[in-house]
Amino acid sequence: MYKLVLMRHGESQWNLENRFTGWTDVDLTETGRQQAKQAGDLLKENGFEFDLAFASVLKRAIRTLWIALDSMDAMHTPIGLSWRLNERHYGALQGLNKAETAQKYGEDQVLIWRRAYAIAPDPVAEDDPRNPRFDARYARVPADELPRTECLQDTVARVVPFWDESIAPAIRSGRRVLVTAHGNSLRALIKHLDGISDEDIVHLNIPTGQPLVYELDENLRPIRHYYLGDQEAIAAQMQAVANQGKAQ
Ligand code: DG2
């Protein structure tokens, strides 16, 4: 049996401000840093060790990983970064407040933009500074793979190849792997791992800074999964994520 740990980054500045973030490279808040430290402490207390870690190329995920590894006294752990683990690109919504957007367009519309599997928000314009083509870190990504908006289906389409080509082979070779990423890039990966339907994935919300352990069989099929931390607090955090799209 293999174990894989998935973790959404700690609270970011735009999580705190309740703004659609996507590929915007915002940093952690002080709370987010504490969550990352607590996650590392929890992993250490529960005897977890890692041979390899992966993160997106966004600093909220990278810093969460650094802080967690530091608190585990495991900063020697090799890290692989990939744009394929980035948050879903939120298109023209990036930067807008989620509750204000719900007041303007209605909660149902915001729920569609946040959770519909195959409906993407409007894209940012070709010359919009939020277009990733202006960001040097994506210079080597083929232009036709760089999104200007995404729905979860699009995110699945670029996360799964990274699972197949990088994460799964590492696990099969016996390495113990930690993946630090984002609400929606992890929803994409979990949908793939657990075979969750397009309808049911709508209801999955992932809390910030909580290690999620997957036990996998020899074919990397999930046997079971569980969050390591306080179950009541995690349930409350998941509900809070769901509520972020309410008009208030
Ligand atoms: C959030 C997820 O991403 O938002 O892009 O706003 O995980 O990087 O904080 P993260 C964003 P929702 O889809 O839950 O609204």
Automatic annotation (TrEMBL):
<keyword id="KW-0413">Isomerase</keyword>
<comment type="similarity">
    <text>Belongs to the phosphoglycerate mutase family. BPG-dependent PGAM subfamily.</text>
</comment>
<feature type="binding site">
    <location>
        <position position="60"/>
    </location>
    <ligand>
        <name>substrate</name>
    </ligand>
</feature>
<feature type="active site" description="Proton donor/acceptor">
    <location>
        <position position="87"/>
    </location>
</feature>
<dbReference type="GO" id="GO:0004619">
    <property type="term" value="F:phosphoglycerate mutase activity"/>
</dbReference>
<dbReference type="InterPro" id="IPR005952">
    <property type="entry name" value="Phosphogly_mut1"/>
</dbReference>
<feature type="binding site">
    <location>
        <begin position="21"/>
        <end position="22"/>
    </location>
    <ligand>
        <name>substrate</name>
    </ligand>
</feature>
<dbReference type="InterPro" id="IPR013078">
    <property type="entry name" value="His_Pase_superF_clade-1"/>
</dbReference>
<comment type="function">
    <text>Catalyzes the interconversion of 2-phosphoglycerate and 3-phosphoglycerate.</text>
</comment>
<feature type="binding site">
    <location>
        <position position="98"/>
    </location>
    <ligand>
        <name>substrate</name>
    </ligand>
</feature>
<feature type="binding site">
    <location>
        <begin position="8"/>
        <end position="15"/>
    </location>
    <ligand>
        <name>substrate</name>
    </ligand>
</feature>
<feature type="active site" description="Tele-phosphohistidine intermediate">
    <location>
        <position position="9"/>
    </location>
</feature>
<feature type="site" description="Transition state stabilizer">
    <location>
        <position position="182"/>
    </location>
</feature>
<keyword id="KW-0312">Gluconeogenesis</keyword>
<protein>
    <recommendedName>
        <fullName>2,3-bisphosphoglycerate-dependent phosphoglycerate mutase</fullName>
        <ecNumber>5.4.2.11</ecNumber>
    </recommendedName>
</protein>
<feature type="binding site">
    <location>
        <begin position="87"/>
        <end position="90"/>
    </location>
    <ligand>
        <name>substrate</name>
    </ligand>
</feature>
<comment type="pathway">
    <text>Carbohydrate degradation; glycolysis; pyruvate from D-glyceraldehyde 3-phosphate: step 3/5.</text>
</comment>
<dbReference type="InterPro" id="IPR001345">
    <property type="entry name" value="PG/BPGM_mutase_AS"/>
</dbReference>
<feature type="binding site">
    <location>
        <begin position="183"/>
        <end position="184"/>
    </location>
    <ligand>
        <name>substrate</name>
    </ligand>
</feature>
<comment type="subunit">
    <text>Homodimer.</text>
</comment>
<keyword id="KW-0324">Glycolysis</keyword>
<dbReference type="Pfam" id="PF00300">
    <property type="entry name" value="His_Phos_1"/>
</dbReference>
<feature type="binding site">
    <location>
        <begin position="114"/>
        <end position="115"/>
    </location>
    <ligand>
        <name>substrate</name>
    </ligand>
</feature>
